[in-house]
Write a structure and sequence with these properties.
This protein is α/β, with parallel strands linked by helices. The protein contains seven helices and twelve strands. The protein folds into two domains: 185 residues, Aspartate Aminotransferase, domain 2 (3-Layer(aba) Sandwich), CATH 3.40.640.10; 101 residues, Alpha-Beta Complex (Aspartate Aminotransferase, domain 1), CATH 3.90.1150.10. The strands form three sheets. It has a seven-stranded mixed β-sheet, covered by helices on one side. Strands 10-11-12 form a three-stranded antiparallel β-sheet. The termini are far apart.
Length: 293
């Protein structure tokens, strides 16, 4: 089932354990940053047996954990595929055996092809790569619906949306319409997910190559965990970072201030950001280093 549900990814943080946690069985989570932390909090609020089987908090969420053991009896394994704030991303998804994967793909859905078969549920707030804010896209394996308790409120049950093709009540019509246009663009203009992935890798490589060759810019994510969507970096001091953000804005390059919780700089290079735009940013960064380094 492909469902459209209002409330964004944040509502899914609580709907997932409500609907998919099996009686007497734990729910496993991997914590890689802010959004994983929020999902874990919502599951704990409901009194679920939450096991955080791996976390990168020990190094300020600068890497993707590799050492973990999934409980074969777990209801599901939840993880966040891309971490917008810290600039990390799963290059290869975790192997959970027969345990269904549940993934928050809000910030990298439609950016690359992947095998959907290990997943019991995938959810994504639309506003990064899919369309405008106002809906979450939920891809749900049909057998997962058998887990949904009858006792849940109607609007918090996945069965409500699956049985009525997301039309139980009035859906976010405009958002869904724009999503259809974005998907058409992705298929017909870009050439599909394989081509989109190639473009995204080329964009990210331009920025990471510059950062790695520079003594002025410093990447914040470990190299094998770097995100293709969010390139996070620091300059020698906060004064230079503020000047960098303002000078870039003066040249038409906006949105480069890091998330308020971590500071620094961040280039978010989602699908809609062209290779030409990233090239312009790289040229600006080289010139800024020349003048201020």
């Amino acid at each position: 089932h492909v469902l459209f549900i209002q409330g964004g990814a944040s509502l899914q943080f609580c709907m997932i354990p409500m609907n998919l946690a099996l009686e007497g069985k734990p729910v496993d989570y991997i914590n890689t940053g802010t959004w994983s932390t929020k999902a874990i909090k919502e599951a704990k609020i409901q009194g679920k047996d939450v096991r955080v089987i791996a976390s990168s908090e020990d190094k300020n969420f600068s890497y993707i954990p590799k050492d973990y053991r999934v409980d074969p009896d777990a209801s599901y394994l939840h993880f966040t595929s891309n971490n917008t704030i810290k600039g990390t991303q799963w290059a290869e998804f975790p192997n959970a055996g027969d345990v269904p994967l549940v993934c928050d793909m809000s910030s990298d859905m439609m950016s690359r092809p992947f095998d959907v078969r290990p997943f019991g549920l995938i959810y994504a707030g639309a506003q990064k790569n899919i369309g405008p804010a106002g809906a979450a896209m939920v891809i749900l394996r049909k057998d997962m619906l058998e887990r949904v308790p009858d006792s849940l409120p109607t609007m918090l049950k996945y069965t409500t949306f699956a049985e009525k093709n997301s039309l139980f009540n009035t859906p976010p019509c405009f958002v869904i319409y724009v999503i259809s246009l974005v998907l058409k663009w992705l298929e017909e203009t870009i050439g599909g997910l394989e081509k989109m992935d190639e473009i995204n890798r080329n964009k990210a490589a331009l920025l990471y190559d510059l950062i790695d060759q520079s003594d002025f810019y410093r990447g914040t994510a470990e190299k094998d965990s770097r995100s293709l969507m969010n390139v996070t970096f620091r300059l020698p001091n906060e004064e230079l970072e503020a000047k960098f953000v303002q000078d870039a804005l003066d040249q038409g390059l906006g949105g480069l201030k890091g998330h308020r919780s971590v500071g620094g700089c961040r280039a978010s290079i989602y699908n809609a950001v062209s290779l030409e735009a990233v090239t312009a940013l790289v040229d600006f960064m080289k010139e800024f280093e020349r003048k201020n380094g």
